[in-house]
Amino acid sequence: MTHSEVRQQLLALLPRLRRFSLVLTRSSDAADDLLQAALERALGRLDQWQPGTHLDRWMFRIIRTVWINSQRAAAVRRTEPIEDHEDHLSADGEGQMEATLTLAEVREAFEALPVEQRQALFLVCVEGYAYREAAEFLGLPIGTVISRLARGRLALAAAMRAPRTSNVTLFRQKGAAS
Question: Residues 33-43: what's their mean pLDDT?
Fold first, then answer.
């Protein structure tokens, strides 16, 4: 496979690679920076990729390695919402608002999970990898991945069942200071 063919495959993988970067960084800007650094590393070391192997797994591993290195070198970057990247498919306002609120609650619960659980959930539930593939990618025993998935799913379910408290005041109480 020629370098130009590999570059074409990388272009096709960009949306998936960016999603994984977002899972790790929790920030749109940081995800873009991480993806750019990973692509630079991959393109500079293209001769290390073995044709016939999964290019996506190779890239996920590079992204994860670059992210780990950046975490060791600097403090965790500030998070920011990714609402700018949502597709609103709901036809009615009520359905759209409900979907937006639910997505925001799931995102908040997902971001509150430890990074180990977020990685396992992303690879298996979003990217569709089998447990064994995710375990190989993360360099962990399959039982550890299954355990992280179970704990992550339980934590998400508990967070979604928990009563929501609102920080929004809809009406000002009479006599309250402005």
Answer: 93
